[in-house]
From TrEMBL:
SUPFAM superfamilies, sorted: ARM repeat
Species this protein is from: Gallus gallus (Chicken)
Protein inscuteable homologue LGN-binding domain sequence ranges: 48-92
One Pfam family hit: Insc_C
Residues annotated as domain Protein inscuteable homologue C-terminal: 105-557
Protein name: INSC spindle orientation adaptor protein
GO biological process: asymmetric cell division
Gene (UniProt): INSC
Length: 557
């Protein structure tokens, strides 16, 4: 923690207290943004920029003045109106909406508990008490809201709710006594008890949220497994997908409760063909966690995906979502793909189907998902590059890049240049690049810049620049490719990227790749460099040139 550790009266440091509080809270919230943990193509480019004022307006209805509302929320004005309100609540919102409300309320509570720990550390007793009252109110509201839309709760859940409410009341009573005490010595002696109570509240709260989310996941999966209605099954799958978007912890809960098994059952029934796209989309989200991957392997999920991809009777949307699952499970960012032994058995069929999907893609998003799956597979197994070469994938990808309606974003170009970079280790790749005008494409990618300034898009542009330079460096061992690159003025562009930090968005990875490409081209065409460029960017050790370029100040004259 950034704050300085100070020992509390009971010998527990503030850092220890924070860790104990967060341990309880993190049982329900892992502090992770699920979309960010997925590979870029699986995100469907849904990079939502939430305005802070808009977020405040959304949360405002939940952030009521709890001190004033506590009595009103605890006591209904009349039994008749209370029943009417319950009816409205249960009928107006879907299960997904109610869960979103629950998660928002839980997020507020977890934030308030963290703030209480901060105020307690500074001995701001008045603030600690007012925030404790607010947490008490939010906890009661959350429990009441959840019980209003759920019709079945376990005995364990009821006991945990009672424990949490009782402990919150005890916590409020403690802090209320503290604001009436002026003796500093007595306050210090009570602080350890408050710390223990706060930690217990956080633990009970985390356990309750974990139990509630598990209960809701079980209910949704029961609907999916038992219903013959397309409408009910679709609604349950959509609600399950909404849960997966709340973080990897929820994906683990769903996987442990059999979510992958239930969804693949849907994908094996022709009756539910119309639900394949949303079912596969949900599977892609769940398979970002190791538990989901293990379940996929157990139910022969790879074989099912291969069957879907190779079945021409399925819609393009279904093929695209199957490609998204492949992209997810082969992501090089994941460390638990080694057990996918069945993938190698079906790789040729899958790669062939994905190349065909790239060639016939009717939209940029379909191409993005298919090319992302191919890009990840080239990392996953080296045989894939040879397969792609035999399938004329190089020609297909280069042709797609000339269609601005298909390859329309830096994200798509990132996938294409990843495949080119991985294939460029093959000697036969050079002739394919020359024939498909690939050197011109690589040159254009060196100029990749973000039009929106969005951080994710900027990062994608950096990757495109880096990988295009890497591909040029690898391919320039072939004299024909090197000659084409020199004629297209690649050397001046590489020099500009090395010397101008803004051209490469201050990216060190782009700089290293450009220095490597420049040195390879300089060997083939030394006359293309001025003496100063040669002395600074080519002749020294790579690390020395790197340090020179990173310390360079741009001239604005």
């Amino acid at each position: 923690m950034s704050h300085q550790e100070q020992l509390l009266p009971n010998g527990t440091s503030d850092c220890d207290l924070w860790r104990r509080i967060h341990k309880g809270i993190n049982m329900a919230f892992k502090g992770e943004d699920h979309l960010d943990s997925l590979p870029l193509p699986v995100q469907r480019m849904h990079l939502i920029q939430v305005d802070s004022v808009q977020r405040w307006m959304e949360d405002l209805k939940l952030m009521t003045d709890c001190e004033c509302m506590c009595i009103l929320q605890s006591k209904p004005i009349s039994a008749e109106k209370d029943e009417q309100n319950e009816l409205i609540l249960s009928s107006q919102y879907s299960t997904s909406d109610n869960l979103q409300l629950l998660l928002k309320r839980a997020w507020i509570i977890s934030t308030e508990l963290t703030k209480i720990a901060q105020k307690l550390e500074k001995n701001r007793w008045q603030r600690v008490h007012s925030m404790t009252v607010r947490v008490n109110c939010h906890v009661r509201s959350m429990i009441n809201e959840y019980n209003a839309f759920t019709r079945s709760s376990s005995e364990e859940m009821n006991q945990l709710e009672k424990l949490l409410i009782d402990k919150c009341s005890e916590f409020t009573a403690f802090t209320e006594r503290c604001i009436q005490i002026e003796d500093e010595q007595m306050l210090r002696s009570m602080k350890s008890c408050i710390n223990e109570t706060l930690t217990t509240v956080a633990q009970y709260f985390g356990q309750l949220i974990e139990l509630v989310l598990t209960h809701e996941a079980q209910n949704l999966l029961r609907q999916i497994e038992s219903s013959d209605s397309v409408y009910i099954t679709e609604s349950a799958i959509n609600s399950l997908f909404s849960l997966t978007q709340e973080g990897t912890h929820l994906c683990r809960i769903i996987a442990k409760e059999g979510g992958v098994v239930a969804l693949f059952k849907i994908c094996r029934q022709d009756y539910f063909r119309c639900l394949y796209p949303q079912t596969l989309r949900t599977l892609a989200s769940i398979c970002c966690v190791e538990e989901g991957m293990h379940q996929l392997e157990k139910v022969d999920g790879i074989l099912c995906l291969a069957d879907i991809l190779t079945d021409n009777t399925h819609s393009e949307a279904t093929h695209a979502e199957a490609a998204a699952v492949i992209a997810q499970i082969t992501s090089p960012h994941l460390t638990f793909t080694q057990h996918l032994s069945s993938f190698l058995e079906n790789m040729e069929e899958i790669v062939t189907a994905l190349v065909k999907l790239c060639q016939e893609a009717s939209s940029g998003e379909v191409f993005l998902l298919a090319s992302a799956a191919l890009a990840n597979i080239t990392f996953f197994d080296t045989m894939a590059c040879e397969m792609l070469l035999q399938l004329n994938a190089m020609k297909i990808l280069l042709a797609a890049c000339s269609d601005k309606h298909i390859v329309d974003t830096p994200y798509s170009r990132d996938q294409v240049v990843t495949i080119l970079a991985n294939m460029s280790v093959l000697d036969q790749c050079a002739s394919e690049i020359i024939q498909g005008n690939g050197v011109q494409l690589l040159m254009e990618m060196l100029f990749e810049r973000s039009s929106s300034g969005n951080s994710a898009e900027v990062a994608a542009c950096e990757r495109v620049q880096q990988k295009s330079a890497v591909t040029l460096a690898r391919l320039s061992r072939d004299p024909e490719v090197a000659d084409a690159a020199v004629k297209l003025s690649c050397i001046p562009r590489l020099i500009k990227l090395c010397r101008s930090p803004t051209e490469r968005n201050n990216s060190d990875s782009v700089l290293v790749a450009c220095l490597a490409a420049l040195r390879r081209l300089a060997v083939m065409s030394p006359e293309g460099l001025e003496d100063s460029d040669f002395q600074q960017l080519v002749k020294p050790r790579l690390v020395d040139s790197f340090l020179l370029c990173t310390n360079m100040e741009e001239s604005f004259v």
